[in-house]
Amino acid sequence: MAAHCQVTGAKPGFGHSISHSHRRTKRRFDPNIQKKRYWVPSLRRTVTLNLSAKGIKVIDARGIDAVVAEMIARGEKI
């Protein structure tokens, strides 16, 4: 599963791990991606989305119909 949120667009960030001696090694900060199924009344079917934890909160606040309509307008495949 790709580390990319379909609602918020969150993707991995990159940086350094810094040891006690201050040596830096490259690392990756992945968003908290979850696979979640929702029933969408306007489409009359379930959709499976890859969402970050913040994306799940956005759907809880705005509603699945509004979020899916915005994703379709953006041209994203659902």
Automatic annotation (TrEMBL):
Could you tell me which residues belong to the region Disordered?
1-30
Q: Ribosomal protein: present as a keyword of the record? A: yes
- Sorted alphabetically, which Gene3D superfamilies does this protein's record hold? Ribosomal protein L28/L24
MF-aspect GO terms: structural constituent of ribosome
Q: Is-annotated flag, keyword Endoplasmic reticulum?
A: no
Q: Which GO terms describe its cellular component?
A: ribonucleoprotein complex; ribosome
Q: So which residues are the signal peptide here?
A: none
GO biological process terms held by the UniProt record: translation
Keywords, in A-Z order: Ribonucleoprotein, Ribosomal protein
InterPro entries this protein is in? Ribosomal_bL28, Ribosomal_bL28/bL31-like_sf, Ribosomal_bL28_bact-type, Ribosomal_bL28_sf
As for family, the record states: Belongs to the bacterial ribosomal protein bL28 family.
Protein name according to UniProt: Large ribosomal subunit protein bL28
**UniProt source species:** Kocuria subflava
